[in-house]
Design goal:
Blueprint lengths: L4 E7 L2 H13 L5 E4 L12 E6 L3 H8 L10
């Protein structure tokens, strides 16, 4: 079976992608982190992309999206 991978997040820091990877793994969503190249300066982060199978795209996006706060002014 061929798996089509889709990028759900790109970040400037690999550690950030690995943290999101742990969130998805804890929910049983297959994923992978792909390096996006080298840095221009030593000490800077290495950009990375977080990918999931196409059929898991929307679930992953929901899990990684920020929590909306309720409007309590009413």
């Amino acid at each position: 079976m061929i798996v089509t991978w889709v990028t759900v997040r790109i970040t400037d820091y690999r550690w950030e992608a690995e943290l999101m990877q742990q969130i998805l793994t804890a929910q049983g969503i297959p994923n992978r982190v792909i390096a996006q190249g080298s840095t221009a300066y030593p000490g800077c982060g290495v950009s990375a992309a977080l990918q999931v199978p196409l059929h898991e795209q929307w679930t992953a996006l929901l899990l990684l999206s920020p929590v909306e706060e309720e409007d309590r002014s009413s």
